[in-house]
Amino acid sequence: MLIRIGAVLFTLLSQLPGTALAIELPEGFIDEAYISGLDGQITGFDASAAGRVFISEKAGIVRVFQDGQLLAEPFLDINEIVNDRVDRGMLSVAVHPQFPLTPFVYVLYTYDPPELVSNGLEGPGTLEGNGNRVSRLVRYTADPARDFNVAVEGSAEVILGRNSTYEAIGEPEGRYNTTIPSCGPISDPTPDCLPVDEDSHTIGAMRFAEDGSLYVSNGDGASYRSFEPLTEMALNLNSLRGKILRIDPETGKGLSDNPYFDGDPDSNRSRVISTGLRNPYSMTIHPLTGQPYVGDVGEKQWEEINGGSSKNFGWPCYEGGEGGNLRQPGFEPLDFCQALYQSSEEIEAPLLSWEHLESGSSAMVGDFYFGEAFPSNYSGMLFYGDFIQGWMRYADVSDPDNVTSFDFASDMQPMTEIRVGEDGALYYASIITAEVRRIRYIGEDGGGESPEPEPTPEPGPDSTDNSSTGEGAVEVGAVSILWLVSLGLSLCLFRRKRSCVNVAETDQ
C-alpha cells in the first residue's frame, strides 16, 4: 500500500522543535508561546476553570497551568487504561462551567479495560493494541485540599459509555476487525456504548453549552480501509456512531428537548442531536444560538465544517461538495445508500468544504469570535483550520446559503484545538512543539474594512475516483497525521507510553 507521505513528512520535519517558525498573520497580529514545557502530545485544553488551564495529553494525562506556571504534578494520570494507538487516546478535556464550586473535570478517551492486561492483550507495541476497543467519557472531582489542581483518588464516574466494557468489545485481539463490531451488531446496537473498531474515527470533543448541557462528538468507529455495511450505523439513530450527542453532564442521559428524544433518557437516540458524520474530531458551540459545529475529517477528497441540530450530514452516502452534497462513490452502490437517495430525507450540506491537496487535508473547527480584542470585522466569525495544510481562516456562517470565508493565517504548525480566551486572544494547541500558543492583536484599535473574501474553490466533478483508501494512494487525515510525530522515523520523542506504530499503518 502506498502512502502519500513525502510532502507531509517534509512539512512536519521542517516544524520540529528548534526549527524557525514562519507563521503568516494579518498586519497587527502576533503569534507567541503561552504554555510551554509539556512532555506529551496536546490534544485539547479548557481555560474556563477560574484562572486555570486544563490540558489533555493523548497518552492519558491532564496537566494544569495556573498563575503563569505549568504545575509539576498532573491533575490526572490514567495512562494505564488509555489506549493511545495512532488516532486513539485521550482526545478532549472539559471543565464544569461552575468550577470550582462544582469541581468536576471531564475527560474523553479510548479505553483499555483491565481485562486486557490479564488476558495478555494490552501492552507497548503489541499487535493486539490495535484490536477493537470502546471509549468512555469520565468525570473526575478536583480535590479542594489540593487547591483543585489534583483529582480526588477514586472519584472517577463514568458519564457516557457505562456499557463500554471489556464484554462489549467485539474482538479485542483482532486487528482492525469490524466483522464482529463492538457495542452490538448493526441490527441491535448496545445502549450507552461507544465503539472503536479502528485505530481512527474514535471519540472526538466535548463542549459545554450556555444552558449547562454537555455536547460530545463521536466518530463512526468503522474502517477507513474498506466500504463496509457497518458504516451505515453513522446514519442509525439507535447507534452512537458518527453522531453529535447532547447529554446531562451529571447523569449522561439524553435531555427531553433533544430532537430525537423517545421518552427514554437512557436510549441512544435520546442522546443524539445530529447524525451522519465520519470523524468529527473538533467541535464548538455557538455562544448565542447554542448550536453545535464540527470539523468532520473527510476521506480521500473532501473536508467539511458542519453545523446545526436535527441534521443528517449524510456520511457515508454523501461527502463534501461546495454548495451541496456529492454522493460518496465507494458507498453509493450499497443498499442503505440507495435507499437514502430514494427517500425524501433532507441531507444537510456542509457549511464549508474544501478539496484535498496532494499532502492531504484535515478539518479543524475553532470558536466563534465575540471578543473585543480583535478589530470589529472579526465579530461573530467562526475560526477554522486545516491541520495538515497549516492554514487558519474565519467565516461568516450566519446565513448557511451565503457563507463567506477569509484568510487569516498560513504556515502554521499542526494544531489540535482552537479557542477564544476570556482576554479576547485566540489560543491553539501545537502538537509539534507541545505548546499552547496565543495569537494577539497589537495593532491600532478599531475595525476597518474586512479583507477581500478568499475565492471559494470550485467543487470538483462528481468523480468516482475519490473513494479508495485501499490500493493506491491513502490519505493521512486529521488525527492520524497528528500522531505522525509519534510514528517511525525517530519522531517518537513526544510519546509517554507504548512503542511507535509503523508508519505504513497510518491512515484516516
From TrEMBL:
UniProt KW keywords: Oxidoreductase, Signal
InterPro entries for the chain: 6-blade_b-propeller_TolB-like, Glc/Sorbosone_DH, Quinoprot_gluc/sorb_DH_b-prop
Region (Disordered): 443-471
Signal sequence annotation: 1-22
GO terms of molecular function: oxidoreductase activity
Record Gene3D superfamilies: TolB, C-terminal domain (2.120.10.30)
Segments forming domain Glucose/Sorbosone dehydrogenase: 49-112, 197-428
UniProt-listed Enzyme Commission number(s): 1.1.5.-
UniProt name for this protein: Soluble aldose sugar dehydrogenase YliI
Gene: yliI_4
